[in-house]
Design brief:
Blueprint lengths: L15 H19 L21 H18 L3 H20 L1 H14 L4 H14 L7 H17 L8 H6 L4
Helix pairs in contact: 2-3, 2-6, 3-4, 3-5, 3-6
Length: 171
């Protein structure tokens, strides 16, 4: 008998669909390897409850989408990044973080006293302060989901890798 074979996959269980996919995957891995008598089979499932920062895969996909969307609108990637954060990420942070919620309330109050141009400059500056690097994997998943569906509704098909789609449990 040969040594143990290690296969490592990470799944963020945020829905019943993903949990079902995870269980099916673990069972298929076990079945595939239990009949292989050359390798001793052990399937280990690790559960971690800690919120992690966005994943590398999420970040890569996000910047791929930013590039595509920026090209469609004639913006730089940084301009488009700020536009997307303002349109979609701020709402997620506002829901999850009291300080962000207070900032948005103050910005909306300031809108009453500023010209449109002054308000836009201020709002753009505030949006630039919100960073995707602080997003948890769950928040980043929501952010990507919102972007995907927003642009899909406008007829812009953003690529979505099969593994990312599967990990999210489908749509």
């Amino acid at each position: 008998m040969q040594p143990f074979k290690t296969i490592r996959n990470v799944f963020r269980v945020v829905s019943l669909d993903i949990f079902t996919n995870l269980c099916a995957y673990v069972m298929s891995m076990y079945q595939a390897h239990k009949d292989n008598h050359e390798v001793e089979t052990i399937v280990t499932v690790e559960v971690i409850s800690k919120e992690r920062a966005r994943s590398v895969a999420q970040n890569s996909l996000y910047w791929k989408w930013v590039t595509i969307i920026a090209g469609k609108h004639g913006n730089t990637k940084e301009q488009q990044h700020t536009i997307l954060k303002r349109a979609h990420l701020v709402r997620i942070y506002q829901r999850d973080d009291l300080e962000t919620a207070e900032t948005v309330i103050a910005l909306n109050e300031a809108k009453k006293y500023l010209s449109v141009q002054e308000y836009e400059q201020l709002a753009q500056g505030v949006a630039r302060l919100f960073s995707t690097t602080k997003a948890s994997t769950k928040q980043m998943g929501e952010y990507l989901h919102e972007i995907y569906h927003f642009y899909n509704a406008q007829g812009l098909w953003l690529p979505q890798p099969d593994d990312y789609h599967w990990i999210r449990g489908g749509e």
